[in-house]
Every structure is written in C-alpha cells, then in structure tokens.
Amino acid sequence: MKCRGSLHRLAPEPVWLSFIRVWAPVAYSGAARDLVRALKFRQAVRVADAMAAQIAANAPPEWLADVTLVPVPLHPRRRRARGYNQAAAIAEALSKRTGLDTLDCLARSGPATTQVGRHRADRLAGPADAIKVRGTAAPARVLLVDDVVTTGATLAACRAALIGAGSLEVSAVVFARTLGR
After folding, report:
1. Is the whole model's pTM more than 0.85, yes or no?
2. CATH number of the domain enclosing 48
C-alpha cells in the first residue's frame, strides 16, 4: 500500500460506540477515506487485502484469538448493484491472514437507504430492526468486520441480532473510524 505512510494512525485502545467495542487501526480521513471509497464505489476489491493487513498487523492480539469473523451485511439491492459486499471482502482477507473462520450469517432487509450524508440522529435510528441472523444459532464469540464506522449504529444492530441468536460476546474491527468517535 503506497499510501501507508499517510494514514492517520489511531490509539491502540478500542472505543465504545452504541454499546459495542470497536477497534480500528486508522482514522477515516485522507488516504483511508480514499481506500474505503475505492473499495465501495470503484470496484477496487484488491484494497480489501491491504485493509485486512492493517487490521491483522495492528489489532490487539486478544482481538484476533478464538473468534469467528462475521461481515456486516449489505442490503441485497446494494450487493447486486455492487457485485460484492466490501465487509465480506475484508473479512475473507482477514481470515486468510489470521486463520480465523468467517461466517456470513447476517442478512439486511428494509429500505436500501445509504448512511452516507445522513444526519447523526438518522444514522442512529436507521438499521435497528433491519438486520437478522440467518439460521438458528450464532457463534459464541463474534468479531464483526466492516470497512468504516461512524456512529456505530449498524454495528449495534448487528450485535443485537447476534446476541438475540445466542452469541455471548460481540466486538467489531473496522479498517477506519471517524475521528471523534
């Protein structure tokens, strides 16, 4: 990753967002924002491996031990349009680097509205009941994987669905986190 030196590194401690512990290696600004946008909007799936490399190399070691990686789901309409789920691409790349299992067990429903450009209150209210667990049971220890976190509302909705389906512990790793969160 040529732009690695220009990434704004974050403190090694996780943060709490919407009642879920979240860890990210970099701030969602500059080069990191460009990488996220390339992955989401320019079909640059290859950057998922660079994002996973940053997560694997910098995450607190206990975060990548004895957990199942679960990608944050993408609305079916958006997945069809994009052709892939960027969170699943990062989770698969992270799985290859760590040897952790990946389970794509979450599904998203409801309107296919994007969080981009929405006010904080609207973001927080957005995905609450739109995420469900496919199947009957969820893994005991889950590490949600996504590209970026802003308010944490989507991660919280995923956590609620997983806890409701039997998970005992749910945390999240993302490539980038909005500063101030």
Report:
1. yes
2. 3.40.50
